[in-house]
Specification:
This protein has 12 helices and 7 strands. The protein is an alpha/beta fold. It has a 7-stranded mixed β-sheet with strand order 3-2-1-4-5-7-6, sandwiched between helices.
């Protein structure tokens, strides 16, 4: 199992290394969980990013890897410490940094060195435009977060947990680093019903995408098993509908393999997940 898990990580890491460096890949030079550069701005609009937030971003921070808007879901407050799992080029961290202000901080963790380097190069532009020095990016795996126990107020993540080969460990790590009373705001890909076996063979050949997605109710079970409460799941159809409308190459292949008269949106959804770590008794 450990060997298989590491093989998955290496495959994902290599895929996202190529994305960070804009190298051709097995995904036809496109994001494996996004529409490609031509549709990146459109996707951000569809899933709810504000135009003013996008205009303020450093160049290249938005790689079209999102399937939701966790910074909006999190309702961030001034002074909070925010952690982004799988922060990529920094899209959500640079938005979160502005939300939490000078007394807050925003920390991104990503396992791909090239992504971390890309995000760090953009810090200078962020600081110049915002006047803030409150973001940082750390190299690490989301199953083993380089973050202290009980140290962050909010955890966000955008289309990343589905990539992990050990999701129970990810949720346990989230519970570990959250302060008592801290909250989770995650956007991820999930299944509404199991995929037909032949579809699994199609998606397993690709980095990311839906190969590692689990049923929505499984996500709730994992969060609860990690000790989180107040769990709310909100399926969002806009993401998959947009991919179908734009004839995204991955979703076009998926349509060909699906049973007749069914669509990707019958099986796949973008899922917003909110949860909270219980407060300690007496606090």
């Amino acid at each position: 199992m450990r060997v298989e898990a590491e093989e998955v990580r290496q495959k994902v890491r290599e895929g996202y290394r190529r994305i960070a460096l804009k190298e051709p890949s097995g995904c036809s030079s496109r994001s494996c969980c996004g529409p490609g550069l031509r549709q990146t701005a459109k996707l951000a609009d569809v899933i709810g990013y504000a135009a003013e937030d996008l205009r303020a971003l450093p160049d290249g921070a938005n790689l079209g890897l999102s399937c939701g808007n966790p910074t909006a879901l999190a309702a961030l407050k001034r002074g909070e410490a925010v952690l982004d799992l799988g922060s990529g080029a920094g899209l959500d961290i640079f938005i979160a940094g502005r939300r939490v202000g000078p007394r807050g901080c925003a920390i991104g963790v990503d396992m791909t060195p090239e992504m971390v380097a890309k995000a760090r190069r953009n810090i200078a532009t962020y600081q110049k435009r915002s006047g803030l020095r409150n973001v940082e990016f750390r190299l690490g795996e989301i199953e083993h977060l380089p973050v202290a126990d009980n140290s962050v107020d909010v955890i966000i993540s955008n289309c990343v947990i589905n990539l992990s080969p050990d999701k129970p460990q990810v949720w346990r790590e989230m519970a570990r680093v959250l302060k008592p009373g801290g909250r989770v705001a995650v956007s991820d890909l999930a299944l509404l019903r199991p995929l037909p076996p032949k579809i699994i063979k199609v998606v397993e050949a690709l980095v990311g995408c839906i190969a590692g997605a689990v049923l929505a109710e499984e996500t709730e079970r994992l969060a609860r098993a990690a000790g989180l409460t107040e769990i709310v799941l909100s399926p969002k159809s806009d993401y998959v509908a947009a991919m179908e409308q734009w004839n995204d190459s991955f979703y076009a292949e998926l349509v060909k393999a699906l049973p007749r008269n069914t669509h990707p949106s019958d099986y796949i959804t973008s899922l917003d997940v909110s949860a909270r770590k219980p407060k300690q008794r007496g606090s």
